[in-house]
Amino acid sequence: MAQERARTGSRERLVEATRELLWQHGYSGTTPAAIRARSDVGQGSMYHHFPTKVDLAAEALRVSSAEAERSIDAYLDEAPSPGAAVARYLSKPRDGEKGCRFGRLTLDDAVLEDERLRRPVSETLTWYRQRMEALLREGQASGELRPDFSAEAVGATVIAMLQGAHVLARADRSQASYERVIEGALTLLEGLESRR
Amino acid sequence: MAQERARTGSRERLVEATRELLWQHGYSGTTPAAIRARSDVGQGSMYHHFPTKVDLAAEALRVSSAEAERSIDAYLDEAPSPGAAVARYLSKPRDGEKGCRFGRLTLDDAVLEDERLRRPVSETLTWYRQRMEALLREGQASGELRPDFSAEAVGATVIAMLQGAHVLARADRSQASYERVIEGALTLLEGLESRR
């Protein structure tokens, strides 16, 4: 039993360490040695739980994705209307330079070339995109938002604005660059409100 | 003289090869050996022209930046109005998955940690951002666009939408994902037009 618990603990520590390292350094920048050092798990135990780096990264992405979806749902539920929920999502405090756990992996050829890594990245970004699309559609149905735009297209653009905000913040090493994009995004979003 | 010409030729071939490889594989993914193979230039000649990979990459970025700014100016000059120029910039045909030569480097720690590489990336993206800001301001001055928004913020958001469109296209390996973002971006841009 004690051994079983210890094994469970090391598995979780490996996944947690990998999640953090993927976020900080990307996939190619994360070495098995760094994962072992951060999780304090030995080589034998690591290979017992995850035979390859891809197995470990795929599990880390699965956990990150499930957690992100849960937390964003709770966050959006507090907005008073669908349009306000989209604005709330854009305005959520974020570390601009650190970037999105998923978006940042799309620049790594090693991720794009392995379907076990690319697919969860794509699926998570698609989930966010469709979440925005559903909110925009709801806003159109309730009359809060104009009926004459494609919720599918604008939903994609909302996610793209966030991803691009991170790109500019990283280039400039500046949180202000991130926030400038969000300010513009909120301005553009206001143009979708029904004209009174 | 013949020797001088040959040397000029190899320098240019090195820079061209580096520009292409940076675009395809990023900075960390580009090896000196790959640059030599692509440019057909030997090791001695390479180190004669560029003592380090950073020197070569910095020069490649300088050339790419100058070329991008020249070509975008010519492209925007054909639009009938400032607002139309912003839309034209967003609609320019692009390979969504290949991405932006500059934006794609912002996810590479090695670029962000070396000011000789990060600065030209930041400066080029800033140049684009300010180009959009100037067009939006012109549109506001002429009455084409609403006076009540920050051209600085929206200019940044226009650039972010493009960068984010590339992120989504890469994640999905899909040009359609790129184009969906652009469609939404153009919709949002329409909301800036003066109400008639």
UniProtKB/TrEMBL annotation, chains A, B:
<keyword id="KW-0804">Transcription</keyword>
<dbReference type="InterPro" id="IPR001647">
    <property type="entry name" value="HTH_TetR"/>
</dbReference>
<dbReference type="Pfam" id="PF00440">
    <property type="entry name" value="TetR_N"/>
</dbReference>
<dbReference type="InterPro" id="IPR011075">
    <property type="entry name" value="TetR_C"/>
</dbReference>
<dbReference type="InterPro" id="IPR009057">
    <property type="entry name" value="Homeodomain-like_sf"/>
</dbReference>
<dbReference type="Pfam" id="PF16925">
    <property type="entry name" value="TetR_C_13"/>
</dbReference>
<protein>
    <submittedName>
        <fullName>DNA-binding transcriptional regulator, AcrR family</fullName>
    </submittedName>
</protein>
<keyword id="KW-0805">Transcription regulation</keyword>
<keyword id="KW-0238">DNA-binding</keyword>
<feature type="DNA-binding region" description="H-T-H motif">
    <location>
        <begin position="31"/>
        <end position="50"/>
    </location>
</feature>
<dbReference type="InterPro" id="IPR036271">
    <property type="entry name" value="Tet_transcr_reg_TetR-rel_C_sf"/>
</dbReference>
<dbReference type="GO" id="GO:0003677">
    <property type="term" value="F:DNA binding"/>
</dbReference>
<feature type="domain" description="HTH tetR-type">
    <location>
        <begin position="8"/>
        <end position="68"/>
    </location>
</feature>
